[in-house]
Amino acid sequence: MTMPRFKVRYSYLPQQFGQTDDLWEQLKKFVPSGDFTLGEPLAKFEGRFAELIGAKHAIGVGSGTDALKLGLKAVGVGHGDEVITAANTFIATVGAINELGATPVFVDVNDTFCMDVSKVEAAITKRTKAIMPVQLTGEITDMAALMKLADGYKLPVIEDACQGILAAGPGPDGRLKNGGTWGVAGGFSLHPLKNLNVWGDGGVVVTSDDQVAKTLRLLRNHGMRNRDEIEILGFNSRLDTLQAVVGNWLIGTTHDITAKRIANGAYYDAAFSQMPGIRVPARRSNVRRVFHLYMVFADDRDGLFQHCLDNGIEAKIHYPIPLYLQDALKHLRHKEGDFPVTDRHAKSILSFPCDQHLTRAEQDLVIDTVGSFYAKKR
Ligand SMILES: *Cc1c(COP(=O)(O)O)cnc(C)c1O
Question: Which of 60, 129, 131, 238 has the fewest other C-beta atoms within 10 Å?
């Protein structure tokens, strides 16, 4: 084995999937069944996922991107439509919108890392067909306010909850309501880097609307009503049943994974909130943020980033170049400064490892390394 380059690594997949003898036993039993597409373990996984999130239906699809795309398609988004979304997100949000021939309309974010709901109304036009908030970093958009606005305009909301499994905000009854259950549908990713992950690409779209669920099931399987009849035009985007076996093996631990990440986040918060040079974003007390990413604002971010890498801490930036300034989105004709908060974030945010396999010693090393950077500067 080669020496690890980092003392505190970002990816924990070797730990997570180091002990899988029981899973291999299950896979050995599954493979000879030949039940590879829309098989029995997939139906079981979908039932468990729906229950976990608190939605009536969960539909396994090929990726998180497809979960978003199918959710948008199910509410009729197509060519020439506009979909309002957050300016700081992963490209996949925009990719899903674009695949349907629709145009993303960005709304700036705030320091929760999610869209600033007070800026949404100004982005609504005659062509707006849907709103796609992004539960970035495992935070949650102010969904109560967004739903009120969207309902007023009769606009469907499809959540990008790919980073936000079990992230939650206060519902109408004051109790926590999970990301993905606020709008018509919510998309989740099972990509290896997400909180609940399988051995490749996968996604889930949830809904509590029976009709939308029926449409989503058609859309993921070529629109086929049955072997011989095609009801609508759809896609080939099924969650592999093999990956559902992996998902079933893991899904029972989602609450533990979440609790560990939240505890790690609190541990970092306590240290970083006292540290000159670092600003911890304001933490709303009535939400559950699940720390898919642990992200803070840093003075001289680029200097700190390099200092971390030089000292064996695998920090990351999510994301260094705002989407609206990317070459691929030139046709949207944005110019630097259009989304000032997103710009500020791109220059000041830094993410540290926060996963469920991280040890307190590793966290302490991260904290000490960051502390030493600012101590040296003074
Ligand atoms: C990961 C991610 C996606 C897409 O998920 P894939 O499974 O990789 O297709 C979409 N949106 C956000 C914000 C993500 O982080």
Answer: 129
Give start-end residues of each CATH 3.40.640.10 domain in the chain: 13-251
Q: Determine the topology of domain 13-251 in CATH.
A: Aspartate Aminotransferase; domain 2 (3.40.640)
What predicted TM-score, i.e. pTM, was given to this entire model? 0.97
**Mean pLDDT, contiguous 10-residue spans, the chain (378 residues):** 78 93 97 97 98 98 98 98 97 98 98 98 98 98 98 98 98 95 98 97 98 98 97 98 98 98 98 97 96 98 98 96 97 97 98 98 98 90
pLDDT given for residue 333 in this prediction: 97
Whose tokens are 């933490």? That residue is 283
- Span from the CA of 253 to the centroid of ligand 1 (angstroms): 21
pLDDT in the model for residue 20:
95
162 lines ligand 1 (CB under 6 A): yes
Per-residue confidence (pLDDT) for residue 2, from 0 to 100: 55
CA of residue 67 to ligand 1 center, whole Å: 9
Sign of the dihedral through C-alpha 14, 20, 24, 27: negative
pLDDT given for residue 155 in this prediction: 98
Residue 63 CB–ligand 1 contact under 6 Å: yes
From atom 6 of ligand 1, which residue's Cα is the shortest distance away?
64
Atom of ligand 1 nearest to the CA of 160: 11
pLDDT for 4 equals 61
**Which whole-number Å values give the CA distances from 280 to 186, 273, 283, in the listed order?**
28, 6, 8
In short, whether 90's Cβ falls inside 6 Å of ligand 1 is yes
Contact between 332 and 27 (Cβ < 8 Å): no
46 in contact with ligand 1, CB cutoff 6 A? no
Q: Which fold has domain 254-377?
A: Aspartate Aminotransferase, domain 1 (3.90.1150)
Mutate to test the pocket of ligand 1, among 89, 93, 237, 243 (most ligand atoms within 8 A of CB): 93
DSSP 19-50: --HHHHHHHHHHGGGT--SS-HHHHHHHHHHH
